[in-house]
Amino acid sequence: MLSKALAKEIATVNLVNPRDFTVDKHHRVDDIPYGGGVGMLLKPEPIFAAVNSLPRLPSSQVILLTPQGSPLTQTTLQDLATHYQQLILICGHYEGVDERIRYLADREISLGDFVLTCGEIPALALINGVVRLLPGTVGKVESLKAESFEDGLLDYPQYTRPAVFQDWPVPDVLRSGNHQLIAQWRRDQQIKRTQQRRRDLWEQWVKGKSSEFGVRSSESDGKSD
Description:
alpha/beta, Alpha/beta knot, 2 domains, 3-stranded mixed beta sheet, 3-stranded parallel beta sheet
């Protein structure tokens, strides 16, 4: 899907190598940390030079991929896909980056509470998540609206043929042809699955529904006969 989007020029991806912006004969982009410690840090000079070499579009964001950043969520992807024409991603390496590199970034994003050997993997995940939300990437827009996290809940269970596989049947309601019952079953499954598997999402969803109900109640109470 991503390759097709790039082929159709819905989005473009350009790679910039910080080593091309070094001035020493060994093209070093890392150095030992002040104060001692394990590992190497990305130096600020080549990163600043690489980022500053890029032409900027009117709405662009520089993003540092780091375990210390805010968690990447569907809401973040939607924000990036909707409001920005250009994303400049800084991929960490080694033990991390010189702290001054953070001054380049408009925001810092993390893929989760774990550490990888490089920032290219989180960058690829972010690119994939953003590009698939751009118009023309996904054939049916409806499929984007019926996915996990789109309304704060996990997705419902889905089945295809055969109707029975190793004694596991497709729920009867999905074969009933009653679209109202199917929609209700799917909604119930979303709520149940989220409550069981992602308590954090469930609590946020309940809180959001409570706030929404409160607003509607206030509006109703304010209406005069």
